[in-house]
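note to self — DONT lose this again. spent like an hour looking for the file last time. sequence + predicted structure for the chain T wanted, 169 res
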Amino acid sequence: MADTALATYRSALAASVVFEHLTPAELDRVMGSCRLLDVEAGRLLFSEGKAGDGLYVILEGEVEFFLPARAVGHMRRPSRVRLNVLGRGRCFGEYGVIDDRPSSASAQALRAARLCFLPTAEFRRITAENERIGRIVYENLLRFLVSRLRSKDKELDLILFVDEPKGAS
């Protein structure tokens, strides 16, 4: 891999939610366990209800997250539900590396993408063997997941709260 490409990917990883605040040496240690994946547009990366296999950071391209029309247990939704589209520097698969539970959504490359993939076993080995890396990575994940929960709380407030007429108490 060309030095400029490597520097660009290192920069994307360093800015990602999971790996921010790691030193260059710590980031190199993580990168040594990662694999670059080139995926074509339309490729399904994981499916709702299936076990995840690791943590992904998007280096190039876009990935769509959705709930398929056919849900787990052969239930049907009225249609496919788009949840989000993520691009460069964003990560996914973090739930699975933490809790070993099946994926809560499906993910598909919207266009050709390059991903940095860290298998679950490697993620856990690195965070267990190096206390500082483990602390930083888990603090980053916790902060990220809590902010996601807070945002969902605000969305629920918008749905559930009703404006009262002036003068009503």
